[in-house]
Amino acid sequence: STAILDGTDDAVLSRSMKSISTISWVGHQYVTWSGRVTAEAFINIIYNSPLLVWRVAQITAYMLMVFTLYKYSKLLVWNEKFGGFSSTVIVVTVPFLMSVGTMRWGAFWMTGAMNYFWITCLGLLALYPMLYVYIKDKHPSRGWIATGLICAVLAGMGQEQVYALLTLFSLIIVFAVVVKTRKIPTYLLVQSA
User: Helices marked H in the chain — which ranges?
Assistant: First the structure.
């Protein structure tokens, strides 16, 4: 079972969080440590909650990752006859292609999960509507556009490397859409910024 082990950054942060509000913590971290606003807010909120809240949030993040991989696999599989089977295979096998250490620490290291795993899930979700435009030659639903924009902002504010990758992949997708369609969907420019 997952517990907060003494001597880890999870234990140190858990004790530190008991006397500081989320806004104060994020402000302090922003000025003295990093600009990871989303991740620092997650850390403060979770460490001020019962351990069960983190466990539920972590299971939700894994479900979100599987759902996102499924959506990507359906989008990227062109053969409709085998699409469902191929999508299932991709969703089931991709996590096993990750290193054991990454999977283990992503699952049991609270601070690491909130700083890296959750933010990466948001980043993957943010790119989906953009890739949809390129592959399907049409806009996704308004719900997907809103989800993509919100996730892009949260992921970008959560981890510098994810922000850099989101920017790079967004610009590549916008360029590919412009080359393919000779026009620029307005929301792609907004999300790329």
Answer: 9-17, 22-32, 37-47, 51-76, 80-97, 100-108, 110-112, 118-136, 142-158, 160-181, 186-192
For the full predicted model, state whether its pTM sits above 0.90: no
Spatial separation of the C-alpha atoms in residues 98 and 12, rounded to whole Å: 28
Q: Are 146 and 154 in contact (CB under 8 A)?
A: no
Structure tokens at 38: 């989303």
What is the CA angle 75-151-27, rounded to 5?
Answer: 160
Q: Look at residue 53 and give its three-state secondary structure.
A: helix
pLDDT digits (tens, 9 = 90+) for 18-53: 778 888 888 888 888 777 888 888 888 888 888 889
Q: What is the largest CA-CA distance in the chain?
A: 58
Considering only CA atoms, give the Rg of the chain. Answer: 18
The torsion of the CA quartet 91, 89, 79, 177, rounded to 10 degrees, works out to 30
Amino acid at 65: M
What gap in Å lies between CA 116 and CA 147, rounded to an integer? 19
Residue 117 near residue 54 (C-beta atoms within 8 A): no
